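(Protein data)
===
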Amino acid sequence: MRKGGQVLMVVLVAALVVAIAMPLAVAKPKLYSKSEDTGKVDEPEKFLPDYDKLAEGGNADWVYFPAGSLKTYKSVTVKAFTSNATEEHQVEAETAAKSGKKYLDQWLKKQGFNLVEEGAELTFEGNVFDAWEPSGAGRYWGGWMANPGTGLEVMAKDSSGKVVAEIRHKSRGSTIKDSVENGLEEVAEAIAKAK
């Protein structure tokens, strides 16, 4: 092959690589509002202000960081979790919510945040929108579906009250309490990645 042919081949291969990579680079993330997770009757969407802006996350299922990076924030406060689960799951969700603050405190501290009672740069609020024990069939067949689960939402506000983080995530564990701990570990990891 002549030198000109080799150069042409290199140019064509480079163009092909760019043509393939471009759609991948500009591909929009999957949005919660377009997913099968949205609109379920037993999973209320009344806690976070921007469900339509939640995008598929890495550690947590759905994330939205309106201001981008959270690198400038060091001190945090975590409020007691609430629950807005439907009546069918209300008791389990209220029980799950009781563990929320403790576990989010624990995992945010592990991610390097300084926990304070007052004057925090970030205040975290949490909600349990669903909590469940597996059905009899799930327990019988075992596997992943045999584990209890929890649906969690976490929102962070800066000292002016502006929302800077929104996360919605489902997790499983050996107990509902364990699923809360597992889920909030993943939520804290997602928050730390935004640092």
In short: The first strand starts at residue 55 and ends at 56.
